[in-house]
Each structure stands twice: as C-alpha cells, then as structure tokens.
Batch of 2 targets.
Target 1
Amino acid sequence: MNLNGLDKSRLPRHVAIIMDGNGRWARLRGKSRIEGHRRGRASVRAVVELSRRLGIPCLSLYAFSTENWLRPKDEVHALMSLLEHYLEAEQPKMVRHGIRLMAIGEKERLPPAVLRTLEHAERATRDNMGMTVLLALSYSGRNDIVKMVQTMARKVQEGTYKVEDIDEAMVSAHMETGSIPDPDLLIRTSGEMRISNFYLWQIPYTEIYVTPTLWPDFREREYLQALLEYQRRHRRFGRTDEQVNQSLHTAKGGR
Ligand code: IPE
Ligand code: IPE
Ligand code: MG
C-alpha cells in the first residue's frame, strides 16, 4: 500500500464520517437514489478496511439521522434493507478481523429484522479488541445530549451522586459514545459545511475535513488524502503556536 508519506505514528485515534452525497451521485448518472445508497456500501467497506489496516482504533459512521426518517417511505425502506444485508454480509469479516461493531442512536425505532441482525452482529463482535466501528443509526446529537441529561438527573434524584460531582468526564461517559475518545478527525463528503445533528458534544477540538467528493466515490485514495490533510493541521487546543511547539520539544526531550 502506498501511503504517500502518511506518518503511522500520528494517526487519529478516532475518525468520524458523515457519509453524504449518495442521492446526488445517482442523479448525476440518471439512476435512482437507492442505487446511490447501494454504491455507497463499497465506500463503507473501503474506509473500514483501510482504517483497520492502518490501525486506527475507532471509526464512527453516520449512516442514518433521526431526521432521515422523514424521507420518502420507499427510500427509508431501501436504506433499512441495505443496512440489514450489509450487516449480514460483513459480520463474518468483522469477526475474522477482530472488529467490534457498536450501534448508537435510537435502535428501538429500527424495523425488527434490522434490529435483530444488528444485535446479532454486536453480540458476535462484542469481545473484539482490534478496532471499533460505531454505526450511528437513527442518531441525533441533540437527542444524545437530552438522554444524557435525563440519565444524570435521574441519578442525582436517586442520590447516586451530587450535582456538584458532575464534570465533563462524567458527561462524556453518559453520552452514547461512552468511553470512546472524541473524534480527532471528522470527514464530510459531498461538500456540505454542516454537522446535520451528528456528534455535538464530542467534537470540541475535532479537525473538520469537507470534501466535494460524493460518498460513493470516496474510497481508499480519498480517505488517505483526508488523513494526510489531518496530519498537516496544526492543533493548538486554544494555545499559541509557540506554546504547542515548546511542549512538543519538551515531550521529545523527555523521552
Ligand atoms: C447520504 O446520502 C445517505 C443518507 C443520508 C442516508 P444522501 O441520500 O443524503 O445523498 P444526497 O445528499 O441527497 O446527495
Ligand atoms: C446527514 O446527511 C446524515 C447522514 C449522512 C446519515 P443528510 O443528507 O441527511 O443531511 P442534510 O439534510 O443535507 O443536512
Ligand atoms: Mg444528503
């Protein structure tokens, strides 16, 4: 694999992807939107595969938002059935490759057959330590926050902990992403400069990469480009360049 100078010691620990543009991809070719979603599956395979080969520990894939339920019935139906088949087809590979699959979002809204396949895949891969794929299905960043607030309020009410005990780490732990580290890199395909209700709490210092490439065209090469761009970014976390360079120096000197 030609990594074009990618530094394997500075890979993101968590990449999150808003997989957008299937409909436009199809329209450009005079095909149905559903054909676009079908083609998008090969891109999912490509990013999971490359992440695993590179050793990126966590990959989040935004596959279906809460708002996507508002789409025409036949499109929703097709998406659900594609999801079910994807899970069935990929599960053995995930088991073989040590990939843990975790779904986040309102699972209870999924059709029963999809839910069964999903839970089966989650169970079968539960103990895998190689890499985690977080599949966001019927996910809403705001809803994730609302549920976190409800859980914490309940715990305070029950006396499990005091209001003053609540801190950022506790909030993070109560989000659906739980102990998964915040994404270092968020990719959105198809050029849209918005979050569309994906992760909200989890992305305070996440590097954002938007590419005009439509999701069905986003494959290994485009993913590598995003990772290279990520490595060119200078993350400051609110400090000055000088401070960041200084602390890099100290860290190196200390080794
Ligand atoms: C992303 O592609 C897939 C889902 C949101 C489920 P779209 O279906 O949103 O494609 P565009 O944005 O209409 O091109
Ligand atoms: C975001 O794409 C949701 C997913 C990729 C699953 P949308 O196509 O639904 O987003 P908007 O409507 O353009 O913001
Ligand atoms: Mg879209």
Note: The longest helix spans residues 73-97.
Target 2
Amino acid sequence: MTIIAIDGTFSSGKGTLAKKLAAHYGFGYLDSGKLYRAVAHKALTDHIALDDNVACAKLAQTLISSDLNDPILKSGPVGEAASKVAVHPDVRAALLTFQQDFANKPAKPFKGAVLDGRDIGTVICPNADVKLYVDADPNIRAERRYKELLGYGESITYAEVLAQLSERDTRDMTRAKSPLKPANDAHLLDTSNLSIEAAFEAAKMVVDAVLNG
Ligand code: C5P
C-alpha cells in the first residue's frame, strides 16, 4: 500500500498534479479540500455562522459522500468560507478518520492513494511514502485562479483574486491547528515556471525514486 501526500498553497497546481499522479500509478485520489468546502457550503446554506465551532463540527460529522459532488464547491465564495471553517479543531477532528481510512484502505482495484490538501503530510498521513509540498509565486497563482474563476462565469478582478489569495495563505498558514507548512521530509516543488506536464514529470521522478527504492 503506497500513500502519496501532497500539500501546498492555494492554486499552486497541487490538485491537478495529484489527479495526474493517481491516474498514472492506478491509485485512488482524494481532494481533501472538498471536505472543508462541503462543510462550508452546508453552513452557508443553513445560515450557520462560519465561526461557530460546535455547529460547523456537527455539519462535518454528518457529511455524506454525495455532499462532495456539488459543482458549487469549486466556487470562490465557498473556498473562502472553507478556509474559515477549517480553522476549527473540532471540524478538523470530525474529518480525520475519513481521510485516514481513504489513505490506508484504498477501495479495489486501487494499489495506493494520493491525497492533497494542507495537512496531509504533517497530520493526516505523517507516515506517507512520498510527501510533496507544492508552491508557486503568488502573482502566478492569482493569475491561474483568476482565469479559472472567469471560466466558471464569476465576475471578479485580478486584484481581488490576489488579495483573497494572500488572505487565504495567511489564514491557512497561521491557524493554531494543523497549519499549512511543509513536512520535514517533504520534497518541495515550485511550479511557478513549470507547465502542468513539466510539474508532473518532476513529481513522477520523486515518486519513482521512492517506489523503486
Ligand atoms: O484546496 P482547497 O482550496 O479546496 O481548500 C479549501 C480550504 O480548505 C483551504 O483554504 C484550507 O483552509 C482548507 N483545507 C484544510 N486542510 C486540508 C484541505 C483544505 O485546511 N487538508
């Protein structure tokens, strides 16, 4: 059983990379951000305050897999709200077992698992076989996200995206519980000047080196 843990900043390209690695190695893939987004979306729909730790944790405890399929989860406002509910220790605790089970007991026919998020290599799977930490220049990440949001039909300026990205980075990196940071044994990958294909090749070299001993 092989576990690949991929953490990194917002719009660094870690999700695309994780998906490609999972397809290449025949592993299951979990976008852990979706769990936080699903909790946030429920909170927004049910008019629950995002700073209400107890109520948000209840939503996290009652999440079901179909909650993860709604395309609205990809939107900018839900992502912002996700980073607010993600600061609550009880929300994180409620989502822990699901993520660890996904990593340790991949469904057939998968031979391993790739998980991406903020705390996979540090908290969820500290014993992962391979850990990657993906980052890129904030201006480049904002440009990528801006184009993505325009593609979803959202009306937003580049400057707003850059400001939100910086706020999100700060919130994710400075929260008390499970802050975003590279695990000590993570391989760092800066995708600022890499195409998706080049980032995938670089990541594959790291994974192959580990898998082939
Ligand atoms: O990766 P994504 O943008 O979908 O994540 C949304 C938010 O969920 C992040 O900004 C972060 O606050 C939170 N998150 C987290 N831990 C994870 C994955 C996501 O705190 N493992």
Note: The chain has one domain: 2-203.
